[in-house]
């Protein structure tokens, strides 16, 4: 080979090496996410060391607090919005209505902003000012409604539905409106069946003995429970229910009842507990979709939830919201019941930061618990 040929060959080989290097570098291990909805799902799983060591079981938590909107409701809000989009019912400027006192409104407001929709959220007027300010900061219209029974047309869920209908029926309003309806809209449990359940199954390499979580709409327990039962037939699906909720008795004895329902003893709230987001005194379509897969239930008192929240901070550095504290308290009880050597998965639903002016106020101030 002549020296000039060797020279050009060297240049060509060098060029190929540089090209390969650059193309490999472009396919970096770090994905650049396109918008906030791409950050939803694929949350990590964490071993809760204190509970694992105390019980001899492996207690794992699906960290839904890592969602961009701070809770698993991001999955549900995205599923509901995409369903309406596929059906051609949402275009820029249209309005999404929901009746919620919590996380779903925050997730809907976040996604509505990122996709050019309006979010109109009806909340009970005793909703914490923190949450109302958060919703408003996310650009939602927030409507405060007096607390009422679910059969009352002024209940915040019914109010959101009727406001959506009003826009749809108004010939002069160019906007369309949809009602998210997280309690009855079965997109909710299906999203958990399609995403949260398979993620937990994969993250556990298909090996787990129980899944325990609370029910607000019932979407999580129904979707995850249904998926896991199909993949791991012996897995136990267990409900973690706060005091004041009728679901515990409904699962254990087939009767929707709680002692606070006794005549004259019911307080102002639908479910009398300091815990937010879980507990219910009716069976929703989303709960029904998974009810047949629920094997057992634990009732967790407010005192037990507060004690667990303190425990998780002091032993594991985990600052969790009230429903997560209920979940972990039930996971511990279940671990004690099953005995050492089992793997139990629960959910950290949201952060304690969202509960600073209620649950964590009690948790920090009152050392004897509520
Ligand atoms: C903080 C929090 N945890 C748990 C849940 C319960 O989830 P699900 O509605 O899927 O039963 C909710 C529901 O609103 C929630 O807001």
From TrEMBL:
<protein>
    <recommendedName>
        <fullName>cysteine synthase</fullName>
        <ecNumber>2.5.1.47</ecNumber>
    </recommendedName>
</protein>
<feature type="domain" description="Tryptophan synthase beta chain-like PALP">
    <location>
        <begin position="36"/>
        <end position="350"/>
    </location>
</feature>
<keyword id="KW-1133">Transmembrane helix</keyword>
<dbReference type="InterPro" id="IPR001216">
    <property type="entry name" value="P-phosphate_BS"/>
</dbReference>
<dbReference type="InterPro" id="IPR036052">
    <property type="entry name" value="TrpB-like_PALP_sf"/>
</dbReference>
<keyword id="KW-0472">Membrane</keyword>
<keyword id="KW-1000">Mitochondrion outer membrane</keyword>
<dbReference type="GO" id="GO:0005741">
    <property type="term" value="C:mitochondrial outer membrane"/>
</dbReference>
<dbReference type="Pfam" id="PF00291">
    <property type="entry name" value="PALP"/>
</dbReference>
<keyword id="KW-0496">Mitochondrion</keyword>
<feature type="transmembrane region" description="Helical">
    <location>
        <begin position="6"/>
        <end position="24"/>
    </location>
</feature>
<keyword id="KW-0812">Transmembrane</keyword>
<dbReference type="InterPro" id="IPR050214">
    <property type="entry name" value="Cys_Synth/Cystath_Beta-Synth"/>
</dbReference>
<keyword id="KW-0808">Transferase</keyword>
<dbReference type="InterPro" id="IPR001926">
    <property type="entry name" value="TrpB-like_PALP"/>
</dbReference>
<dbReference type="GO" id="GO:0004124">
    <property type="term" value="F:cysteine synthase activity"/>
</dbReference>
<comment type="similarity">
    <text>Belongs to the cysteine synthase/cystathionine beta-synthase family.</text>
</comment>
<dbReference type="GO" id="GO:0006535">
    <property type="term" value="P:cysteine biosynthetic process from serine"/>
</dbReference>
